[in-house]
């Protein structure tokens, strides 16, 4: 068990790495010896401005983001980008392609009013191709970057950030909500090639135009100071662990550990086929579904929280983001064995 003695396997907000959590606790009282909480400082405070710059620089370094991409720290959820992407990237065109592989890409399809498709048949008139490398609810993950045939590629990397190695240069735009691998809720990271900025539909409200956020360095509106600050702590932590590739490998290892326990069991089963299994999200269920409620109650009593599956799918799910230590996964696999011994 961790020093916390408990683990949370939910899909976001998620467990923070312990050092990040402790640092936040201290900074809530006194940020860098200022005598003020990080929550009390103005966005124009020099130290905060320097902190914003450092977070961007760290992110660029860790994800190897070239200068011809803007890095934006925007208010709100990844869901906002389901609408902002078409507002900004359609550039007068009427066609877009969306790969519909699960619940979240389905929501992006809905907001863009694009037809969904089964087999990818790309439209050469499309302004961009949008896909979701890791579908959090269904626990499926692309093992490759789809070939967009030269069309701008856009990805919702909310669950892929620091769980899948992705080369930003292959994308026109990626976005990720912060409450998974970038800290806490209230902010979405957008990394967008500068050539794609400045062509928003003229009806686009000011606050939804990427050009406005690029020009104001994400401070058109009072920025999401707290999640931006926590993102900085998360990036420091990722660097201390050895960088993005090491974080992705740790995530993969944790998922393999858990999948091995599920696959080796007679009582638990995983619906996702081998080649499509996500590292960040592992859906599973009991072969005897009548035991689901009991499993969740007993798991919680054992300190293992957030294992109830997404309401759209039911069953069980364990999300494994950066803050989940291997010890947490071992506690879960140990519990699966124990539960099977009692109820199998
Ligand atoms: C892949 C993916 N996209 C989008 C979202 C929605 O994010 P938000 O709640 O920040 O709008 C989620 C939330 O879990 C997600 O997993």
Short note summarizing the structure:
With 344 residues, this protein is an alpha/beta fold.
Write the topology of this structure.
Layout: E1 7-8, H1 18-29, H2 46-63, E2 69-75, H3 78-89, E3 97-98, H4 103-112, E4 128-131, E5 134-135, E6 140-141, E7 152-156, E8 173-177, E9 187-193, H5 210-215, H6 225-241, H7 244-263, E10 268-269, E11 281-286, H8 292-301, E12 304-305, E13 316-319, H9 326-343
Parallel strand pairs: 1-12, 3-4, 4-7, 7-8
Antiparallel strand pairs: 2-9, 5-6, 8-9, 10-11, 11-13
What key attributes describe this structure?
single chain, 344 residues, alpha/beta, 6-stranded mixed β-sheet, 3-stranded antiparallel β-sheet, 13 strands, 36% helix, globular, binds pyridoxal-5'-phosphate
Strand order of the largest sheet: 2-9-8-7-4-3
- Would you tell me the overall average pLDDT? 95
Q: What's the order of the H and E elements? A: EHHEHEHEEEEEEHHHEEHEEH
Which regions have little confidence, pLDDT < 50, spanning 5+ residues? Answer: none
What level of helicity do the residues show? 25-40%
Total beta strands? 13
Beta content: 5-15%
Number of H/I helices: 9
* Overall 3D form: globular
Describe the structure.
- This protein is of the alpha/beta class and 344 residues long.
- The protein has nine helices and 13 strands.
- The protein has helices at 18-29, 46-63, 78-89, 103-112, 210-215, 225-241, 244-263, 292-301, 326-343; strands at residues 7-8, 69-75, 97-98, 128-131, 134-135, 140-141, 152-156, 173-177, 187-193, 268-269, 281-286, 304-305, 316-319.
- A six-stranded mixed sheet has the order 2-9-8-7-4-3. A three-stranded antiparallel sheet has the order 10-11-13, with helices on one face.
- A hairpin with a 4-residue loop joins strand 5 (134-135) and strand 6 (140-141).
- Helix 1 packs antiparallel against helix 6 (225-241), helix 2 packs across helix 6 (225-241) and helix 7 (244-263) packs parallel to helix 9.
- The longest helix is centred in the C-terminal third of the chain and has 20 residues, at 244-263.
- The model has no long low-confidence stretch (mean pLDDT 95).
- The chain binds pyridoxal-5'-phosphate.
């Amino acid at each position: 068990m961790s020093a916390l003695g408990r683990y949370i396997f939910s899909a976001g907000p998620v467990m923070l790495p312990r050092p990040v959590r402790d640092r936040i606790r201290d900074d809530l009282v006194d940020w860098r010896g200022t005598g003020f909480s990080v929550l009390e400082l103005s966005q124009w405070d020099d130290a905060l401005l320097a902190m914003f710059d450092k977070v961007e620089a760290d992110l660029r370094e860790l994800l190897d983001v070239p200068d011809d991409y803007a890095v934006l720290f925007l208010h709100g959820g990844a869901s906002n980008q389901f609408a902002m992407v078409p507002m900004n990237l359609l550039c007068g065109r009427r066609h877009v392609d969306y790969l519909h592989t699960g619940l979240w890409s389905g929501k992006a399809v809905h907001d863009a009013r694009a037809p969904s498709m089964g087999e990818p048949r790309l439209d050469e008139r499309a302004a961009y191709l949008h896909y979701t490398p890791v579908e959090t609810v269904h626990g499926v993950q692309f093992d490759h970057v789809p070939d967009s045939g030269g069309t701008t590629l856009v990805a919702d990397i909310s669950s892929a950030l620091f769980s899948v190695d992705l080369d930003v240069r292959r994308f026109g735009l990626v976005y990720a909500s912060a409450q998974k691998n970038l800290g806490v809720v209230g902010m979405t990271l957008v990394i967008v090639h500068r050539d794609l900025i400045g062509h928003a539909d003229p009806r686009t409200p000011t606050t939804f135009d990427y050009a406005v956020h690029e020009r104001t360095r994400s401070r058109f509106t009072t920025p999401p100071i707290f999640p931006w600050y926590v993102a900085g702590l998360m990036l420091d932590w990722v660097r201390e662990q050895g960088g993005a590739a090491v974080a992705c490998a740790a995530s993969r290892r944790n998922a393999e550990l858990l999948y091995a326990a599920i696959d080796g069991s007679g009582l638990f089963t995983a619906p996702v086929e081998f080649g499509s299994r996500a590292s960040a999200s592992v859906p599973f269920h009991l072969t005897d579904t009548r035991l689901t409620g009991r499993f969740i109650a007993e798991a919680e009593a054992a300190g293992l929280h957030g294992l109830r599956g997404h309401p759209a799918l039911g069953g069980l799910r364990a999300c494994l983001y950066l803050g989940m230590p291997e010890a947490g996964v071992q506690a879960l696999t140990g519990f699966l064995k124990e539960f099977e011994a009692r109820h199998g």
